[in-house]
Write a structure and sequence with these properties.
mainly alpha; 73% helix; 0% strand
Length: 288
């Protein structure tokens, strides 16, 4: 893979990671288009290319850390402080341990996602073999985004997040493994449906992305190493994609947050429906 191709794919990931329009679908569509134009890329379903996709996903985690750095450091400090209080109380809960409780709820969301992912991953990946199904999932994402803008002010703050809400968000993230369903779009949408305020729906969704993507990247890295290591790609290409996706992602994330807080996500619905038509009628190829 040429360096400039890694830059292009890094830009695609940086933009679409946070726009609720499925970054995975756009990466694969971009890769198929480049291959059709005669450029030298591994197949999108190959272990190396999946690892590249995850590396640029990790790059966008840097964007989350930069944009949410104050909230993230507050959460990390709060978890450490709450853990100290819990240990000093002999493992008994004598006070409100908000941040430790949130960490537990986040872990529960991840557990729900993992159960769905390991149970249905093979089935979900088959969706890319059917343009009609991808068009359907893109259309569904657009409908959900439109719906979120019609919701009244949501009542739940951080202290009212419970296992039900955490489970619903974990379910949404698991379903987002289906090609065409946006991870950020699904988790934010389901969080809003569960009653979470827009600010906390966004922060919970993006914080949840950090352990999720890191875990997926670790598993995929192990698979590539066991398969003989990098062959068609190299670490320079990986590094360029990582840096570009991180820088572009910072701008994209700030734009999405403004639109989310102002209930303007329906703008992306029109884009998704147009993309669904293009995929469904064969103007864009999605099959392997």
């Amino acid at each position: 893979m040429a360096i400039w191709v890694a830059i292009v794919l890094g830009v695609v990931q940086g933009i679409f990671m946070f726009l609720p329009v499925s970054s995975t679908a756009h990466l694969v569509l971009s890769q198929h288009w480049l291959i059709q134009q005669g450029f030298d890329l591994p197949p999108p379903e190959s272990a190396e290319m999946v690892l590249f996709d995850l590396v640029v996903h990790v790059g966008t985690l840097v964007s989350i850390v930069v944009v949410f750095r104050k909230s993230l450091f507050k959460v990390i400090g709060g978890v450490l402080r709450d853990t100290g209080h819990w240990l000093s109380d002999g493992g008994r809960i004598r006070r409100e341990l908000l941040f430790l409780r949130l960490a537990f709820l986040c872990a529960f969301s991840l557990l729900v996602t993992a159960v769905i992912g390991f149970s249905f991953r093979g089935m979900f990946n088959l969706v890319f073999a059917s343009p009609v199904m991808v068009a359907g999932t893109l259309t569904l994402t657009g409908i959900l985004l439109w719906w979120t803008d019609t919701l009244a002010r949501r009542p739940l703050g951080l202290r009212r997040i419970n296992l039900r809400v955490a489970g619903i968000i974990g379910l949404a993230q698991g379903l987002a493994l289906i090609p065409g369903l946006s991870r950020s779009g699904m988790t934010i949408t389901f969080a809003l449906f569960a009653g979470l305020k827009r600010k906390w729906a966004a922060e919970y969704s993006f914080f949840l992305a950090i352990p999720t993507i890191l875990a997926a990247s670790a598993v995929q890295s192990l698979e590539v190493l066991l398969d003989g290591g990098l062959q068609a790609l190299n670490w320079t290409v990986m590094g360029v994609g990582f840096v570009v996706s991180a820088l572009v992602g910072i701008v994209a994330l700030k734009i999405v947050l403004v639109m989310l807080y102002k209930a303007r996500l329906r703008i992306f619905s029109f884009y998704l429906w147009g993309l669904a038509i293009a995929v469904g009628f064969g103007f864009l190829q999605v099959g392997y």
